[in-house]
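Lay summary

Proteins are chains of building blocks that fold into shapes. Our project writes down both the chain and a compact code for its shape. Here are two examples, one after the other.
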Amino acid sequence: MSPEIELEMYFLFHSFLMGILITVLYDILRILRRILPHNILAVSVEDFLYWIVCSLLVFVMLIRENNGILRWFAVAGAMIGMMLYKKTLGRLFVRYFSLFLQKILHIVGKWLRIIAMPLQLVARRLAWMRKKSENRMKRKVFGAKKKLTERRKLLRMVLYKK
């Protein structure tokens, strides 16, 4: 095979892989959106950043492989890579990887709740002790205020007698 055709074949293969990579990146975004619900603003920002990253990846590939020249078979190779991945591994990847991550997060959440249980007990005990000390302080302040009021009244009575 001639070296030019060989370079074109490598370029086609790299375009094919780029199509797969671009689709995998978007599937990762889809998985994150399944695990962590996003509002419309977050989705829009993510999509915008995704397209910037994809365009940079494609631009770098075009510069390296073909001196920045866009060829029709490169676009076709990327589209075939995208469709082939989407029809074969894409559905399985998103479904099962998101389930896998949800299970892991569920298990981690259970462990965190188990670990946090003694901390919650300590926090409740501290809150109870704080409340108890506040009540004592309130009673002492109330008692001191009551004594001061009585002494003030007594002082007034003594001063008025003179």
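And here is the second example, written the same way.
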Amino acid sequence: MGEFCRIAWLVMRKDLRVEVRSRELVYTTVFFATSCVLVFSFAFVREGRPLAGVEAGIVWVALAYAGQLALGRAFERELGQDALRALLLAPVERSAIFVGKLLGIVLLMAIVEVVVVFLVTLFFSSALIEQAFWLAALLAAATVGFAAVGTLFAAMLARSQSRAVLLPVLLYPVTIPVLVAGVSGTIALLAAEPNLDQARFWLALIAFFDVVFLTLTLWTFEPLMAE
């Protein structure tokens, strides 16, 4: 277990170091998410007031598409000089490589989430911050499930010339339950009288999907990458 965690940490640290130097993914995803929020702020605000419940949809749409953008580039750096093959041939558990990549994506999406929630709160005068604990729990749980499935598909499609087209085709049908549960839980938090019981129900449902997704992705990563 110690060796597994060490390899996962090394892979994540390598991705973070590369990202700190280039800031390519951070700038791209944050800019894209910010653009989504700005466009929606013009479309869904009437006479200075947003349409009821629209903030929940905006948060999750912006995060889903920003996450897809990040996932599309997750394994791109390893394609140069056949580094992906070398990584997979290393004498370590491939599932540890998967977990390291997953953690890097989760941290990147967490940065985007902070920016998106701040902007939605600012432009829509939303009460998101008032329910910060439960909102953070929903976002964290959904991010893990979304990123787990996305990391698997991104690795599977890394060598494909059509990965930019195929990734969303594979990703969204599988992760729709997580996104719908996230939107529903956020709407429950934003109600005039926040319904915490309903929010907890949706959070538990997302946690269930996380367990399923993580189990399946860890189980299938090695045989899929061996093909």
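What can we say about the second shape? The chain is about 80% helix and 0% strand.
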